[in-house]
Structure formats: structure tokens, C-alpha cells
Write a structure and sequence with these properties.
alpha+beta, Beta-Lactamase, Heat Shock Protein 90, 5-stranded antiparallel beta sheet, 13 helices, 12 strands, 18% strand
Length: 482
């Protein structure tokens, strides 16, 4: 018989076993649930794999289609390439045909050129060609090297102003009309062409029978025989006088415009700088006079006004003098005069000063003593140069001034040189001819002299250049039209 204690023990164990069993069942249920979830996941993955497999099948079909298309495109490119090769072959054939046709055309053009030259040669003696030459002032000349005979058209005689029937044409005769300054170069070019039998072309000046200067151009060619021996010299002459005179006038107008522009700039500088200072002084002092100031200060203000007024008056007189120079030159008449006598007149007017300061003037006008210009201006230029040389001479050394002249292609050149203190052109070269510019302050002056010299030289249509070193004197080179 089971006692109560044993029964309780058994009951306890059964309860514990039952709890263990319940726990195991719970674990089984959890495991079953997990297996169900895993199974669903596996099913989902299988479904995804099936979808991916289907996509791969589709992609594979697309790839196969693309490869098929590429093969078709490759086949089309092969066909297109063959077509292109065929076209290039056709183009090469066409190019060969064009080259052949071009060669035939060139040959035909050469034939036409030969025929044209023959036609021109045949027209040389016709009235139409002569009329065209007269209109264009274009003439032709010919020298036979075997017979040494010379022939030229009437245009050349007309350009020289000589009668066609009174003169026997020859090379020497026509060379006698060449301007002396161009004669040596013209002979050199002509003889060089004759020596080397080569084409030559050049410009030259000539003097008409009436003394007027003309401008011409000639081109020289040679005609050879079958043995390359020169037979004839063929020349073309064109009278360019009218064209050249127009060009010279244009250059003159252009130069005058540039000079006027520079003058306007110079006047603008004077107005903005030189006039502003005295005007500012007058205005400033005038304001002071309105104030209640002492008599002593008032007198000082009046002195400032008087001084500024005198500066303005001097400046206005200088400007008036400059403007008169530039306006009077158009009304002045050029004349022929002896430059040596002009210098002697200057020496006579300042002979006491020259003797007192021990100044010697040496001249050499053998190359050119007679010039055509405005005498008063040339006198003023040389007088001012000599005055400057006396003012800025070296102390204790006799001053020597040398003046000479020479002819140039464009006129006359006057060289002026002294042995004075000179100017440092490295410092002052860009303002040497400026208005109110001074470079030596041990002597009184306004800085107007060199500006006036340059203004007068340019008013005469000339140019002036300066060369100098400190303590080495100064040299002026003046080029004037003559």
C-alpha cells in the first residue's frame, strides 16, 4: 500500500514530467513554426530563382537577337565598303580623266597665249594700240643689238616734250633726259640688264625739255634667237608724273595734318598747364581780397595779381607770335637768295657781340649757295641758332660755329654745329623742341627758342634733327625743299 508521502512524491514527479513534456511540446511547436517560415522562405527563393531563370532566358534570346543584328550590320558594312571601294575607283578614274583634260587645256592655253602674243606683236603698229598707249601714257621702245638701231613710240617723245621728227633716237639721247640724281643708278641698272640679259624694272625721274621734272617707270625684256643669243631689247615706258604729283600732294596734306594735330596738342598743353597756374593765383587772391584783411596783406595780394597778369600777357603774346608764324607762311612769297650773304647779314647785325664773346663763324656754301625759300624765316632760324650758341658757349674757350650746305634729292640740307656746352639728349631728347622747355638754368630764358626754330623750319616744309653730347657741342641738320 502506497503511503501518502510516496503518493505526493509520485505526483510531484508527474507534475515535473508533465511540465517537461509541455515545454518540449512548446519547443516542437516553435520549431515547427520556424520550419514553416523557412519553408516559405525556401519557396520564395525558388520562386525568385524561377523568375531569374525566366529573365535569363529572355536576356539570352535578346543577346541572340542582337548578335543576329550585328551579323546583319556587318554584312551590310561589307557591302557598303565594297560600294565605297567601287566609288573611289570611279573617282580615281575621273581624276585621271580630269588630269588628262587639264593637261590638254593647259596646252591649249599655251597655244592661245602664243597666239595672243603674236596678235599683240601684230597690233604694235596699229592705230588702236597707239591710241591706248596715249591714253595710258604708256609707250614702248626697242633696241636692236645687232644693228644698234633704236626705236620708240610717240608717247615717249610727248612725255619728254620733244618733237618726234626733229630728233634721232638713241639710248644716249634719252639718257640725257634722266634727272642728274637718278642718272648713275639708271645707267647702272640698264648696263647690268644688258650684261646679264635679264629682266629689269625700275623708277626714275626725268627732266622735260621745258625744265619740269617728270616721273617715269620702265621695264626691260630681251628677245633671243634659237641659240639663246639676245637679238633685241624690248622696253615699256610709263609716264607716272601726274600720279606721283598727286601722291606728293597727298603726302604733303597728310604731313600738314599731323603737324597741325601736334600744334593743337601743344596749345592744349599750354592752356591746361601754363594758363591754369596764373589764373588760379588770380582767382585765389581775388577771394582773399573779399575778406577783411590788413592793408599789408591787401598789397601783397595785388602784387600777386599783377605778376599773374603779366604772365598771362606774356603767354598770350607768345601764342599770338606762334600763330602768326603758322598763318603768315601761306601768304609769304618764296624767293631765290644767297645763303652766304644771309649769314653775313646776321654777322653784321651782331658783330659787336661776336667780337665781345670771341665767337667765330665758319661757312662753306660751295655745294649749294643759292636756295629758294622764305628768306625771313631762314634768317630767323639761323639767327636764333647763332644766338643760342653764343648764350650756351663753353666759358674760357673761343666759340666756333660752323655752317655748311649741300644739295640733296629733295632739296637743300643745312648743317649747323658749335663747340658749346651741348645738351644731354638721353635725358631731354623727347622734349628738346618743346614749348617752354629749358635745359640750362644758369642763363635767363623762356624755353621758346628751339620751339620757334622747329616751328619755322616745319612751316617752310622742312625737317630739323639734333645731335649732341654734354660738353661736346651741338649739331643741327636742317632739310629744306628747294
Amino acid at each position: 500500500m502506497i503511503n501518502k508521502a510516496s503518493l505526493q512524491e509520485i505526483t510531484k514527479k508527474l507534475l515535473e514530467a508533465n511540465e517537461e513534456l509541455a515545454y518540449l511540446n512548446s519547443e516542437k511547436e516553435n520549431r515547427a513554426a520556424e520550419l514553416a517560415v523557412a519553408n516559405q522562405e525556401l519557396l520564395h527563393q525558388n520562386s525568385e530563382k524561377e523568375k531569374r531563370a525566366a529573365e535569363l532566358v529572355i536576356a539570352n534570346k535578346e543577346l541572340v537577337y542582337q548578335n543576329t543584328e550585328k551579323e546583319k550590320r556587318a554584312a551590310e558594312l561589307v557591302i557598303a565598303n565594297r560600294e565605297l571601294l567601287h566609288r573611289n575607283s570611279e573617282k580615281e578614274k575621273r581624276a585621271a580623266d580630269l588630269i588628262s583634260a587639264n593637261q590638254k587645256l593647259s596646252f591649249q592655253m599655251e597655244e592661245n597665249s602664243i597666239q595672243s602674243k603674236r596678235l599683240i606683236e601684230s597690233l604694235k603698229s596699229t592705230a588702236n594700240l597707239e591710241s591706248a598707249q596715249v591714253i595710258a601714257l604708256l609707250g614702248n621702245w626697242e633696241f636692236n643689238m645687232e644693228t644698234e638701231s633704236f626705236h620708240c613710240s610717240d608717247v615717249i617723245y610727248a612725255s619728254l616734250g620733244v618733237d618726234t621728227h626733229k630728233e634721232i633716237p638713241s639710248i644716249d639721247y634719252f639718257l640725257s633726259f634722266i634727272h642728274p640724281d637718278d642718272l648713275e643708278e639708271t645707267k647702272l641698272r640698264f648696263n647690268k640688264a644688258l650684261s646679264y640679259h635679264k629682266l629689269s624694272a625700275f623708277h626714275f625721274r626725268f627732266i622735260r625739255k621745258n625744265g619740269h621734272i617728270g616721273y617715269g617707270f620702265t621695264e626691260i625684256k630681251f628677245e633671243f634667237d634659237e641659240n639663246n643669243k639676245p637679238l633685241r631689247v624690248l622696253g615699256v615706258f610709263q609716264d607716272l608724273t601726274v600720279r606721283r604729283l598727286v601722291e606728293i600732294e597727298k603726302e604733303k596734306v597728310h604731313s600738314e595734318l599731323i603737324q597741325r594735330t601736334e600744334n593743337l596738342e601743344q596749345f592744349a598743353y599750354i592752356i591746361s598747364h601754363n594758363l591754369s597756374a596764373p589764373v588760379a593765383n588770380i582767382l585765389g587772391v581775388s577771394d582773399l581780397l573779399k575778406e577783411n584783411i590788413s592793408e599789408k596783406d591787401r598789397n601783397r595780394c595785388m602784387d600777386v595779381i599783377f605778376k599773374a597778369t603779366r604772365q598771362l600777357d606774356m603767354l598770350l603774346k607768345d601764342l599770338h607770335f606762334i600763330l602768326n608764324i603758322q598763318s603768315d607762311v601761306t601768304a609769304a612769297v618764296k624767293e631765290s637768295f644767297n645763303i652766304e650773304n644771309l649769314v653775313l647779314d646776321i654777322e653784321a647785325s651782331i658783330q659787336n657781340l661776336l667780337k665781345e664773346e670771341t665767337v667765330t663763324i665758319e661757312t662753306d656754301f660751295l655745294a649749294c649757295n643759292q636756295i629758294i625759300s622764305i628768306k625771313a624765316y631762314v634768317y630767323s632760324v639761323l639767327f636764333n641758332l647763332i644766338s643760342n650758341s653764343i648764350k650756351y658757349r663753353k666759358p674760357g674757350i673761343p666759340s666756333v660755329i660752323k655752317i655748311c650746305s649741300q644739295l640733296t634729292k629733295k632739296g637743300v640740307q643745312i648743317n649747323y654745329k658749335d663747340n658749346g656746352i651741348g645738351i644731354d639728349l638721353r635725358k631731354h631728347g623727347n622734349k628738346i623742341f618743346g614749348l617752354y622747355q629749358r635745359f640750362h638754368f644758369h642763363k635767363e630764358g623762356k624755353g621758346l627758342g628751339l620751339y620757334m626754330i622747329k616751328t619755322q623750319v616745319e612751316a617752310l616744309g622742312g625737317k630739323i634733327h639734333v645731335y649732341s653730347e654734354p660738353n661736346e657741342g651741338i649739331e643741327f641738320v636742317i632739310d629744306l625743299p628747294n
